[in-house]
Amino acid sequence: METTVTKTGTEDQIWGGGNQPLKVSYGKMMMWFFILSDALTFSGFLAAYGFSRFKFINSWPIADEVFNHFPFLHGVDAPMYYVALMTFILIFSSVTMVLAVDAGHHMKQKKVILYMFLTIIGGLIFVGSQAWEWKNFIKGEYGAVETKAGQILQFVDTEGHRVALDEVAIVDTNKERAQHEKKSGIWYEGEATLPTYSIDEIRAGFAKNKDLLIRTQILTEDGEKTVLSREESLRRLNADAIGIVEGANLVHNEYGTPLFANFFFFITGFHGFHVFSGVIINIIIFINVILGTYERRKNYEMVEKVGLYWHFVDLVWVFVFTFFYLV
Amino acid sequence: MAHDTAHHESNIGRIWKVFFLLSVITIVEVILGIIKPAFLVETTLISMKLLNWIFIILTIWKAYYITWSFMHMEGETKGLRRSVVWTGIFLICYLIFILLTEGDYIYEVFRGGYKAWDF
Predict the structure, then answer these.
(1) CA end-to-end distance (rounded Å), chain B
(2) Is B65 within 8 Å of B21 (Cβ atoms)?
(3) Nearest Cα to B14, choosing from B74, B57, B70?
(4) Do the chains contact at B70 and A97, CB–CB below 8 Å?
(5) Which of 29-68 (B) contact A at CB < 8 A?
(6) Which of A109, A142, A257, B116 holds its CA 20 to 30 A away from the CA of A246?
(7) Size of interface A-B (CB pairs under 8 A)
(8) Band of the pLDDT at A43, cuts 50, 70, 90?
(9) Which pTM was predicted?
C-alpha cells in the first residue's frame, strides 16, 4: 500500500495522517460500514413485511401451517424443526468461521484451512436447505380456491383438518379441454398451464360431500382461521370462487395473501443470495489461504474481513427466522 | 497494515461458550414456538402478544452476542462501535415505528368498511 502514497515526512503527526481514531485498518472499517448499509437494506425489507402484516393483521397466514415439512417425514406435521435445523447449521458455520479467524491470529495455516472448509460446507448445506424450503412452498400441499377479490378459501373436514383439492374434486371425465400451445395455434400464441381441476369440478365434489367445510383467511380471537358453516361455505364457493390455486408464486398463493409469498421469496431470496455470495467469497479466500498468500503477508486480516461478512449473514438470518417463522 | 499478532490471545473457550448460549436461546425459541403457552399468547403488551415480545427480545440478545463476540465488536474502539451500532439502531427503530404505525392505520381503514375487499 505504501507504494501508492507520496511520502511527506509527516506521516506520524496528527495532520499528516498519524491520527487513527478508530484504530482499525481501512478494509475492516469499510466492511463494517458496508455491513451497516446492508443491515439497513434488510431492515427496510423486514419493516415493509411488518407494514404489510399490520395491514392484514387479522388475515395473515400462520407460519406453522405453511412451513411444516421435514425431509423423509412425508405427511408429518413438523412445524419449525427444519428451519431450526437450518438456523443451527448457519450458527455453527459462524462458529467455524470465528475459529478460522482465531487460528489466523496465531498464524496457523492448517487450522485456518480446516475451519474455512467447514464454513464453506455449512454455507452450502444452508443454501441447499433453503432451496428445499422454496420447493415445498412453491409446490404447495393442499391447494385452495381463490375468490373474485383474490381471497383464499381452503377446505377442511368437520374436525378442522385440512382437505386437499384432489379429495374434494369430482373429475369430469367428459371434459375435452387441452392446453392451447404455441404449435397448435395460428398466431403462435400459447396459454398458461391449465389448472389441475376446474372450479366446477370442485363445486360438484363439495356439494356431494356433506363433511366438507370452508376455512377463510380471517383469524379468530384465538388466532385460528375462521371455519364457515356448511350453508355459508356453499354460498361462498358458488357465489365468489373463480378458480383453484395450487402452491405459491408471485401472483397467487394457496396459503393466503400473495404478499406473504412475495415477501418470503424476496427476503429469503435476498438472504440466500448473500449466503451464496458469502460462500463464493469464502472460497476465494480459502484458495488464497491454501496458496499461502497470507503466510507471506504475515497477517490473516482478509479472513477476518470475510468473517465479518459471514457473521453478518448469520445475524440477518436470526432476524428472518424470528419474523417469518416465530412471531 | 502492521498488525501485531502477538496481542491476540486465543479465546476458543469463549467461542464455544457463545455457541452454546446461542444454541440454547434458539432451542428455547423453538420450544416456545411449538407449545405456545396459553398465558403468553393471551397476555398483550403494547398491542402485541407477550410471546412475540419474548421472541424479539431473545433475537436481539442473540444478535448482541453475534455482533459483540463473533464479529468482535467488543474489541473495537468506542468510536467505531458507536458509529456503526447507534446509527443502525436509530434508523431501524425510526423505520419500524413509521411503517408499523402506517400499517395499523391502513388496517383500521380496511376494517372501517369503506372498501369491500372480501368477496
Answers:
(1) 66
(2) yes
(3) B70
(4) yes
(5) 29-30, 33-34, 41, 52, 55-56, 58-59, 62-63, 66-67
(6) B116
(7) 163
(8) very high
(9) 0.88
